[in-house]
Design brief:
Two copies of one chain form a homodimer. Chain A is built from eleven helices and no strands. By secondary structure, chain A is an all-alpha fold. The interface between A and B is large, with 55 and 55 residues. Chain B binds a DNA duplex (30 and 30 nucleotides) through helix 1 and helix 3. Chains A, B: Keywords: DNA-binding.
DNA sequence: TGTAATGTTTACCAACCGGTCAAATTATCG
DNA sequence: CGATAATTTGACCGGTTGGTAAACATTACA
């Protein structure tokens, strides 16, 4: 009998795990490159190296595939922000947050583009995730930053917009990679632009947030 | 006889100007919301208030429409950077550049999203524009910024990444509007977030780039 | 006003796309 | 092995999409 994926309650087969992994990997590749509408099931199937009906045996619809992919990626995507430590040294925490985010832009550009595509198109599938868990996490960290500012450890600033600006500057190197490369020119073929970006962003944010001559 | 748009060499009719204007306006609306693949010609025709064949009488293909739209918008999109004045006061120039870009994110979010979509998908249609005119303009302004740094008027920094970070932070409020709203919550329904962002970004960039006690 | 050029519409098509079905193949396990 | 369940495939389907053909309507202008 044919039992589509959603109906299986028992333990998952080795084959199931392997195939679902391969499918999500292929889906990430295709969705991140063409967006939800732009991606076709045939394309994903081809990248995954299997036939379309076979793929649809594991994920019954294109949307189910996309949903599974988003939820999986969103979780790991927020890890850097979760590591933000209220007890650590403020300047050091912000610096390492920037560095972590930039490393993710370098190492997981497809994941970044997947989200960018999703948000750009109005986030039809993850609006609840944004207003719920994401907002809660940001609220929590914003409170931490605000307390640092009040304690005089960093300059006073709007913590939400600080977070937004860290997100945007770092993810820019994944989402707008084509533009960055075009402007920097051929000579920046390697990962050098990420190191340059790290230097610049550290300077910008750290200097911009430091307390200057607090006593005088 | 039917002479499609591309073949017309003579002066354009009043009707042509009106209709092409309406079409490009509708195309901007739809493309910016759904991306190239996600947009349909029927949708654009409906928004433009005309039949699909009628629309295709002015732009023979969907791609031609998209190309026309991109070229037109790209030109005005770069105006703020062009206004960057080498002879002005460095700090004031950077401040007003940030403000102009933020105003564009507020007043022309569709244009911003159109580009974001295009770049995200690998900029298949405008790669030449990026590597040519855009790069040339950025190179020119980067040289200006570098000269300011050398003259000790602003802190030393990579001018390219400075420009990138201004682009990304400001455009973020157009491209990721849904996320920004979700995180900030309902109370920020108006344009308040743009004023908050302006204050924050000015503080960040100006403080981050000022020369601190150069003499001491 | 007459007429040729321009503009608009209805009906249509071929390609594509997400998804189904039933049959065939392969893995699992007593 | 034998049988039952899980997996894979080719053929197919209805709806959508970009685009066309040709008849019809309107405008510009001598």
């Amino acid at each position: 009998m044919v039992l589509p994926r959603a109906a299986r309650t028992q333990r998952r087969t080795r084959i199931q795990e392997e195939k679902e992994e391969r499918i999500l990997e292929a889906a990430l590749e295709v969705f991140s490159l063409h967006g939800y509408r732009g991606a076709t099931v045939d394309q994903i199937a081809e990248v995954a190296g299997m036939s379309k009906p076979n793929l649809l045996y594991y994920f019954r619809t294109k949307e189910a595939m996309h949903r599974a992919l988003i939820t999986r990626v969103l979780d790991t995507w927020l890890d850097p922000l979760r590591e933000f430590d209220a007890l650590g040294n403020p300047v050091a925490e912000i610096r390492s947050y920037i560095r972590r985010k930039l490393e993710m832009a370098r190492d997981f550009p497809r994941e970044s583009r997947l989200f960018a595509n999703e948000i750009l198109q109005g986030a039809p599938n993850i609006e609840d995730e944004l207003k719920g868990p994401l907002k809660a996490l940001v609220d929590e960290k914003a409170a931490v930053i605000r307390s640092w500012a009040k304690a005089g450890k960093i300059a006073k600033c709007d913590p939400y917009h600080l977070i937004f600006s860290i997100w945007s500057t770092t993810q820019h190197y994944a989402d707008f990679d084509v533009q960055v490369r075009a402007v920097l020119g051929q000579e920046n073929a390697g990962d050098g632009r990420f190191e340059d970006a790290a230097r610049f962003l550290e300077q910008l944010f750290i200097t911009g947030l430091e307390i200057h001559d607090p006593a005088n």
